[in-house]
Design goal:
Strand order of the largest sheet: 5-4-14-15-16-13-17
Structural class: alpha+beta
CATH class of the largest domain: Alpha Beta
CATH architecture of the largest domain: 3-Layer(bba) Sandwich
Bound molecules: flavin-adenine dinucleotide
Distance between the termini: 47 Å
CATH topology of the largest domain: FAD/NAD(P)-binding domain
Helix content: 25-40%
CATH superfamily of the largest domain: FAD/NAD(P)-binding domain
């Protein structure tokens, strides 16, 4: 059978992740050609990830230590959110579990019951990843007991993926795409025509051209659902700085009067950025705030970015699939963009057409991808809506906004009963929702009665055992920076 010709338009994280995965998993069953323009370059950000990237790397047979050395990566155990509930509040959204769930009721119910019986120890004390992060500790534990992701250099990640993809037979063409040629009869994409005149034909085209969305939008006009009324930030500025101390195993997201700032520690430097709403903050003010609050010598010119939050109405249309920023964008508050890229690629591999594209595959793909995006969207909106901040027009707007029914229902359920249910393989599990909802100030009015079946002594013993287990494990862990240096230290 003739190999399917897959053409990847764009060589950012999305393009090279797709090319690397397709070439490795499908081998001779496909040909992979990637077109990218050095003159245009990539978005140049995207450094914080979430745990499913581990599965993606394992599926591709990537050696973790080599990957981390090549991308100057550090481990990430979660995100420290400061200033979100009130300007001087803070909470941690960690990976992994807190305490021990009962099948009928999550651990938060037992913790809440304990609170009512005088056990005042914070919910945080029951989470291994959280306490390890706060103490700057990390090690691989047996049975993957410590859930983690990576903080990595996006440019180096692109180079790493490119080496891998080309090593597995993907073909790279440098040049600017001048035209997307459509088949006059079917309306499918027939070829990409480069400025040089070269025509690149294919069966399936992946639009990885970033915010430009050259194929899916400019050529195929699928339309865009704008979500800025729920997630109003529309601009960012990124700069890199020299490290001022050992890298910690977590990302920071610090709210300010019209958005928030990130800090992502890597082995060789720190990634920083400010995300803001241009209606409430001017670019000069955002830059001034960013430069005034970062630590360490500034290594790069500010990278200014504008975006519209939302999603393409169809991620797959005809013989074109949008992956990465071309498919839509939600701000990087929970580091979900690279994850959505990965989900789209794995989905495509599962649904790879053997012949002509089946409308049923397209519908299924779009449905699944849309569900992912909506679930992530709701989780992000939660951070803005559930705030006690009223100190700026931006926060007053966020607190007062109408939210999607799906999120309103989730908040109401938790507020009344302490319950959270995960639906349709939702990315963020119960523990994530509980940590963020309580961190943002939503404390359940009641909890599951099952916790009352434990006597005072039994409950005290359970809580103490769980806390001690966490504390003891963390005490035995090495410091994160030392572990990274030993395990995957990269040349500076
Ligand atoms: P790009 O990097 O923009 O790549 C587009 C490619 O298309 C480039 O190679 C370009 O040259 C090519 N191209 C475009 N037009 C043409 C043309 N005419 N001819 C030829 N080639 C063309 N994600 C996370 O998971 N974690 C984070 O912490 C995170 N932080 C972010 C912070 C900000 C401020 C922003 C805006 C995004 C962030 N993201 C993050 C998202 C992440 O950066 C992207 O999902 C990721 O980099 C993928 O980008 P991309 O490959 O889709 O687009």
């Amino acid at each position: 059978m003739t190999p399917r010709r897959i053409v990847v338009a764009g060589g950012g994280t999305a393009g090279w992740m797709a090319a690397a995965a397709l070439a490795r998993v499908l081998g001779r069953a496909v040909t992979v050609t990637l077109v990218e323009s050095d003159a245009i370059g990539t978005v140049g950000v995207g450094e914080s990830t979430i745990p499913p990237i581990i599965t993606f790397n394992r599926l591709l047979g990537i050696n973790e230590a080599e990957f981390m050395a090549a991308t100057q990566a550090t481990f990430k155990l979660g995100i420290q959110f400061d200033g979100w509930k009130t300007p001087d509040s803070g909470y941690f959204h960690s990976f992994g579990l807190t305490g021990k769930d009962h099948w009928a009721a999550g651990f938060q119910h037992f913790w809440l019951d304990g609170l009512s019986r005088g056990h005042a120890e914070p919910y945080d004390d029951y989470c291994l990843e959280l306490i390890a992060a706060r103490e700057g500790k990390f090690a691989h534990l047996p049975d993957d007991r410590l859930n983690y992701a990576y903080q990595l250099d996006s440019t180096l990640y692109g180079r790493f993926l490119r080496r891998m993809a080309e090593g597995d037979g993907a073909h790279r063409i440098e040049g600017r795409i001048a035209e997307v040629e459509l088949d006059g009869t079917s309306g499918d994409i027939a070829a990409l025509v480069l400025e040089s005149g070269l025509r690149v034909e294919g069966d399936l085209f992946l639009d990885c051209t970033g915010f430009r969305a050259l194929l899916i939008e400019r050529a195929l006009h699928v339309g865009f659902d704008d979500w800025t009324h729920w997630l109003p930030c529309d601009a960012a500025i990124a700069v890199q700085t020299a490290s001022t101390g050992p890298a910690v195993p977590f990302t920071r997201a610090t709210a300010h009067q019209a958005g928030w700032q990130w800090r992502i520690p890597l082995q060789h430097r720190v990634g920083n950025g400010i995300v803001y709403c241009s209606r409430y903050m001017a670019e000069d003010a955002a830059l001034e705030r960013l430069l005034g609050t970062i630590e360490g010598e500034v290594l790069t010119e500010p990278n200014r970015l504008r975006f519209t939050t939302g999603a393409r109405r169809r991620q797959w249309h005809r013989n074109c699939i949008a992956i990465g920023l071309a498919g839509g964008f939600m701000e990087p508050l929970e580091s979900t963009s690279i994850h959505l890229i990965q989900r789209a690629i794995l989905r495509l591999i599962r649904m790879l057409p053997a012949g002509p594209v089946s409308p049923a595959d397209v519908a299924e793909f779009n449905d699944q991808q849309h569900t992912d995006m909506v679930q992530i969207r709701d989780f992000l909106i939660l951070h803005y809506k559930a705030t006690e901040r009223r100190d700026s027009a931006f926060w007053r707007q966020c607190a007062g906004m109408e939210i999607p029914d799906s999120l309103a229902q989730k908040i109401a359920l938790f507020r009344d009963t302490g319950r959270v249910f995960r639906r349709n393989e939702e990315l963020f599990a119960e523990n994530s929702w509980v940590q963020v909802m309580m961190g943002q100030g939503i404390i359940p009015a009641s909890h599951h009665p099952i916790a009352a079946k434990l006597s005072d002594d039994d409950l005290a013993r359970l809580l103490a055992t769980l806390r001690q287990g966490v504390a003891q494990t963390v005490a035995g862990l090495p410091h994160h920076a030392d572990y990274v240096a030993r395990y995957c230290g990269a040349a500076a």
